[in-house]
Amino acid sequence: MIADVTTLQPYLTSQSLTNYKFLRIPFRQHPTHTFLSKSTNLDETVTTLSNLSNPERFTDALHLCISSKSLHHGQKIHTLILKNPKLRHDPKLLSKLITLFSVCRRLDLARKLFNDVKDSTFLTEKLWASMAIAYSRNGSPRESLIAYVDMLCSFVAPGDFSISVALKACVELKDVRFGRGVHAQIVKGGRKVDQVVENVLLRFYMEMGFFEDARKVFDGMSERNVVTWNSLVSVLSGKGRVKEMFSLFRKMQEERIGFSWATLTTILPACSRVAGLMTGKEIHGQVVKASEGADVLLVNSLMDMYGKCGEVVYARRIFDGMLSKDLTSWNVMLNSYAINGDVEEEISLFDMMIESGVEPDGITFVALLSGCSDTGRSKKLSR
């Protein structure tokens, strides 16, 4: 079982605890969203539900409302639920209603429902979690943490989902103290959390810059999937810790972790920054060996890496071999010629681009102008 709210207190000043527990930010009113692409089905469903008391049928109907963001039909279903004594206190249905209101940007309705339930019955962890994620979904991470603390103060033990929502809010708010408090709850409670929580906890420490703590979490994980590795690689790249990122990439290879295109796309720009040609070629090899085709974003990154490492011939081979090129593909190749001083090829490629019917943008002309450092080259371009 997760440790109770007292575990958090060493990590919070009295003022910050007061802020999180009692701060109440007024709700903004949002316009009603009624995207009724499935309105016919929903109309029929609501009519059918009026004669039923099966919770599963109501749950399915609310799923449909959520997927189509149909607040209008959701409110009709809510009315039917309130009229039915067997359903009005069903935590799963109430949770779905809170989710519906939040995806429709009606936090005021979600909060009203939550408070009505709070006054009439015991709130389950699922309901608290639904309200916390409603705040998070609508850009209110501070309110999300308030809900988390309120839940603990109500002696409701948080589940994995609640913990992950709280940690995500800590990342958004850059609240190191509270995040460490949540981690302490997990450790003191002695409860095994799921992989989602471990991944969020890892990202929390990485985003906050506590790489040693992040590594401890990483090393202690029972299972590490591609999402775990990608999180670590992405943050290391974003923080400019290229050496550690390359080291992690090597470890992924040693442990035979299946790469995703996202992993490789993240690593390639770092190869460009530090002229890591050998690592870039290794990634190229991974792309060639893959049974399925790489996406355009990855191939563009591969071209960019070769160009910035001075291997413009390799970049051009990749460009010519692309079955599908977007504007970025042309711009990357033009920039590769520009930074390597090959203006003749750059102008030739630009002519080819125009003949192919591709509309240049501002980035295209910046690449062209950057390659023309003397008057002679500028005259060639001006034609």
From TrEMBL:
It comes from Eruca vesicaria subsp. sativa. PROSITE patterns: PPR. This is Pentatricopeptide repeat-containing protein. GO terms for molecular function: mRNA binding. Pfam families: PPR_2. Coiled coil: none annotated. PPR repeats lie at residues 225-259, 326-360. Belongs to the PPR family. PCMP-H subfamily. The lineage of its organism: Eukaryota, Viridiplantae, Streptophyta, Embryophyta, Tracheophyta. Keywords: Repeat. InterPro entries: PPR_At4g14850-like_plant, PPR_rpt, TPR-like_helical_dom_sf.
